[in-house]
Amino acid sequence: MSRAGLEKTPHEVASMFDGVAARYDLTNTVLAMRQDVRWRKLVAEALDLSPGQKVLDLAAGTGTSSEPFADAGVHTVPCDFSLGMLKVGNQRRPDLPFVAGDATRLPFADASFDAVTISFGLRNVVDVDAALKEMHRVTKPGGKLVVCEFSHPTWTPWRVVYTEYLMRALPSVARVVSSNPDAYVYLAESIRAWPDQRGLAARLRVAGWDDVAHRNLSGGIVALHRGYRR
Ligand SMILES: C[S@@+](CC[C@H](N)C(=O)[O-])C[C@H]1O[C@@H](n2cnc3c(N)ncnc32)[C@H](O)[C@@H]1O
């Protein structure tokens, strides 16, 4: 199994990430041209947590998405269902309490976290709506969700350059750095098929999140969505 298709199964997704785990962070940095560092800082700012509060970083992969808030003293639980990604995460950051778990059946009690966040993970979850409801269940009343995900550039000329040229070039660039370049064909396909900013906001509301809003980053290549559990 080298890559998942859009009609993916959870097993295909987990094995695809097992296959890219070894060079996942390197490939990301090259493909995102270090923009990912800024996007991750903005996730921490949007979470706005204090040291000692507890956050679930879902689909945390190798734990890179957890670092900005974990390193600021927030009690961070990185959770993922790819054992390959978790293994690399454990080697990189043995200080973080990685947990194996599926986003659609989280191994946590109701209202366990002050906040839940998911970076570049929700698009890969087979049942997105079930995951949004699970995240709501494990968040304390008054707590927050922050979703960081690829989205749709808002300025038409930029959207055309991005989808027609940059996205098509992605697998060729990934061939040079990734341990599984085919996975980056899936990345481009899944970004194209993902709902736009308003579409994702509507899905958050249906799952029970209140006061939903979003902010575009890098012209809408990425969007941060937030919601609260009342
Ligand atoms: C692109 S990586 C993102 C990793 C990390 N959050 C980051 O920003 O670098 C997506 C992750 O989602 C995880 N994932 C996908 N579906 C999942 C599910 N149902 N439950 C838990 N993790 C899942 C994959 O295993 C993978 O590690």
TrEMBL record:
One of its GO terms (molecular function) is demethylmenaquinone methyltransferase activity. S-adenosyl-L-methionine binds at residues 62, 80, 102-103, 119. It comes from the Bacteria. It catalyses: a 2-demethylmenaquinol + S-adenosyl-L-methionine = a menaquinol + S-adenosyl-L-homocysteine + H(+). The keyword Methyltransferase applies. Its EC number is 2.1.1.163. HAMAP family: MenG_UbiE_methyltr. This is Demethylmenaquinone methyltransferase.
